[in-house]
């Protein structure tokens, strides 16, 4: 059994790469051109400190994405369109259609978001007053 592996700068760099690109530790080391043996990688992956560091790095990355001032509804729609196009190109038309339908929901073209209220800004109190006046046969007055 080998010595415990310290979580050095190379490992921290690899963990950040894993979180941002969704790759394995071995792939991260290869892409960053950090030389590690298979045994070293297995030993690193088994450490609780490594697992905790990876978990924290992923959540930090997700937080960065969510709080990016450039991330807007249009960004999400653009990403969905890109994914739908890839699905179509791979022949998965039913899944692509579902993505397009979801885009329609996000854009407000489909669903309850697209309905228009004929009552405008009337509160329930206003509606009850109108109903009562109609029941009495008098002409209702709307503010």
Describe it.
With 143 residues, the protein is mainly alpha-helical. Among the domains are: 9-67, no CATH class; 73-110. 66% of the residues lie in helices and 0% in strands. It is built from 7 helices and no strands. It has helices spanning 9-21, 25-31, 38-46, 48-67, 73-89, 93-107, 124-136. Helix 1 packs across helix 4. It starts with 8 loop residues before the first helix and ends in a 7-residue tail after the last helix.
Quaternary state of the chains: single chain
Rg from Cα: 28 Å
Distance between the termini: 82 Å
What is the β-strand count? 0
Shape label? elongated
The chain-level structural class is mainly alpha
| Helix/strand order | HHHHHHH
**How is the main sheet built?**
none
What's this, in brief?
66% of the residues lie in helices and 0% in strands.
